[in-house]
Amino acid sequence: MKTVALLTARMGKTAELRTLLEGLIAPSRSEPGNLRYDLWRDQADENRFVLDELYVDAAAFAAHRGSPHFQHYLARIGDLAERVSLGLEPIAVRQD
Hints:
GO terms for molecular function: monooxygenase activity. This is Quinol monooxygenase YgiN. The protein has a single domain, classed as Alpha-Beta Plaits, CATH 3.30.70.100. 40% of the residues lie in helices and 33% in strands. The chain has helices at 14-29, 58-66, 68-80, and strands at residues 2-9, 34-41, 48-55, 81-88. Strand 2 (34-41) and strand 3 form a beta hairpin. Helix 1 (14-29) packs antiparallel against helix 3 (68-80).
């Protein structure tokens, strides 16, 4: 299961958003079934971030969404950013 989330900080909330997103990295990467959990920032807009997530299957992704750290994120994200989340289906993906 691949998910990409695009997050654009609300006015004056960039630092808070970055802190929130960075706080997800370690606990998310340590979850069973997590293959990738990367945070990126847009070179053209320092207020825009991308979360790039990959899980072994839908069950691992569901477990992530039920975790305390993800629930904390959900409780705060609406105040900090505009968010678009994409659930992606593989078509031609390199298998290493």
